[in-house]
Amino acid sequence: MPKLTPKQEEFLARRIVATATTLRRDGSPHNTVVWVDTEEGVLRFNTAEGRAKPKHLRRDDRVAVTVIDPENSHRWISVSGRARLTHEGAAEHIDSLAKKYIGVDVYPWHDPASPRISVVVEADRIDATGLDD
Cβ contacts of residue 47 below 8 Å, gap of 6+? Predict the structure, then answer.
């Protein structure tokens, strides 16, 4: 499994939203905006039960996530591979993403009826431009 380079991880540490693509039952792509981070060279995002992403990923675990630098569209990264979903540590994960993206210690929209899910993208391929020059 390819891992992110240190420069790619540094880029993903910035407060830039990503687009995650999953596949609907009919095979058509479903794109959504997600918050991302990395752990040990692996990209992660977070979602919740009841949403389309976990439903799609449980049926077909293929996923792609793309992040484009809002200040320079020639700097971007796209990670595609297989998703591994876990509830373990997912509530803490969304809290850390909330700190990164909106500057609060606790994610303000926790819903006990919709447990959080961390999605780990086990990369088959990492494409990037402008990040490792």
Answer: 34, 53, 54, 116, 117, 119
